[in-house]
Fold this sequence. Notes:
Blueprint: H1 22-28, H2 32-59, H3 65-98
Amino acid sequence: xxxxxxxxxxxxxxxxxxxxxxxxxxxxxxxxxxxxxxxxxxxxxxxxxxxxxxxxxxxxxxxxxxxxxxxxxxxxxxxxxxxxxxxxxxxxxxxxxxxxx
Length: 101
């Protein structure tokens, strides 16, 4: 049986993050309404893009059908996420309303 020597273990040192991203900064400053508005704008843009590509596909102007499929899937997933966030917000509101003062 042969025993092999193991070299020293090096652990990379990662510098700490000194500045939070804009989204984190908005959330820490209580700018929740701006985040919700930005999310709804993103949803609207995704749905508009999917609708435009659907019209192009229907008229035969779309060169690559994959573009429409990707846009439609993105719009669908964004809608599902928005509905899930809305449902959680409504549940939280209802829970707060059930609390006794």
